Amino acid sequence: MKKIIAALIGSAAFAFPALAQAQAYPSKGIKIVVPFAVGGIADTFGRVVAQKLSESWGQTVIVENKTGAGGNIGADLVAKSPPDGYTLVVGNIGTHAVNPFLMKNMPYDPLKDFVPVAHLLDAEGLLVVHPSLPVKTVPELITYAKANPGKLAYASGGMGTTSHLAGELFKSMAGVDMVHVPYKGNSPAITDVMGNQAQMIFATMPTVIQQAKAGRLRAVATLGTVRAPAVPDTPTIAESLPGFDVANWIGLFAPAGTPHEIAVRLNAEVQKIMQTPEVQKRLEAEGAKFVPTTPESFAAFQKAESAKWGKAIREAGIKAE
Predict the structure, then answer these.
(1) How many domains does the chain have?
(2) pLDDT tens readout for residues 70-79
């Protein structure tokens, strides 16, 4: 009995510091690493979260941009940081689902080296085509592509980008043969679609919505599972190809080993921040939507995304540049 009591006391001694740490959190400044360039959607909403956390908790919350290697440099920095909730990273579909299947020497494991905290947003996607292409719907596009195998070209922002992966998923599910034309970024890709050097692109909505409204491009379908509020009359690809879903998602992650209580507290605060009218208005302007999750449901989502894109990348034989 004495041994059992001693063991219980010992276990409690290990548990109490973590519990006390979580209850006192945050007691100092927090750093949020954004592994992408200043001005992008991940940076924009990383800064929104940082500002609101600082206002709510009375602690300094800074944003540090650590770019390079498709986001891997910044993500790796956080993966190797102390698991105390004071260093976080704004990760995305690339850093936390896709990159391991594209890059040979990953410095971290997206599933094992992080605690998913909160799913921040999905950037709405839009399939647009050059106006000269005689298609206005997904079924018409599939019919045309099957009648003209290898003659349609879709542009992307580069090998392994979301716009590339969406095109490969479409080809696989629709059973069509289209040519992939990678560019060094989305801007030149969109420019060439408008110039008809390529006939279509699976783009993020903010980058093409104005050109579509002006008639320089034709919106065919959105990439998510539900219609986008910005273009409510535009159907989803999934309405014609059930199961098609490409979410250019962004989330908040902490290093593995971060106490669950801290992840839960961060998650609850992020939920409040992202659902304020001010932030909702900014999301709408960016063609994005907030996705409420718990740390557990976000972890399940990340795992499913990793499995889904790993399969798609292997089947398409995609390699990073």
Answers:
(1) 2
(2) 889 999 999 9
